Amino acid sequence: xxxxxxxxxxxxxxxxxxxxxxxxxxxxxxxxxxxxxxxxxxxxxxxxxxxxxxxxxxxxxxxxxxxxxxxxxxxxxxxxxxxxxxxxxxxxxxxxxxxxxxxxxxxxxxxxxxxxxxxxxxxxxxxxxxxxxxxxxxxxxxxxxxxxxxxxxxxxxxxxxxxxxxxxxxxxxxxxxxxxxxxxxxxxxxxxxxxxxxxxxxxxxxxxxxxxxxxxxxxxxxxxx
Length: 225
Fold this sequence. Notes:
Strand order of the largest sheet: 1-2-3-4-5-6-7
CATH topology of the largest domain: Leucine-rich repeat, LRR (right-handed beta-alpha superhelix)
CATH class of the largest domain: Alpha Beta
Number of helices: 7
Helix content: 25-40%
Shape: elongated
């Protein structure tokens, strides 16, 4: 059945029909005919008939991973994406990172270097196991608040952007040991940076910081300015 036939059927009826299709088959069908459906409607019918058989979270994740694959034109299978611990999207010419990135909950390393990202989707907070995040060579103007919620992050690279300040929320990253912010537009270092107890390396070279307060010289942190 192709798009022509589906276009002749009311969308409400399509949603009822698709609500009886298995999760995997539904992903394949949407991939073949490229139709838009109302997830909430499908979920309603699925749960009313099969509320003991359908795993809502797994079903939603299957669709989310499919969309992520499709938007970025990746060649991975659904199962491969589920198990990913490292994802490298260097020089993919990405202007917008899809919110479906939040379904890759097993990620520990995410490399987004050399793209055109101005911001990150809020769903990135779901990457609770992320330890290494590199967003260098993009066009970020600020450090997204969503990054400051990734409490397992150890390495954060944000060099070669247009960041003007370091937000106080960054002190939530209690496991951060390496922070690279060189080649930005930062003018000062917040004094609360000392709360990052595990921080050993802070690179702020090639910013607009011309003098370092004597307070920071007392910290056990290797600082470059």
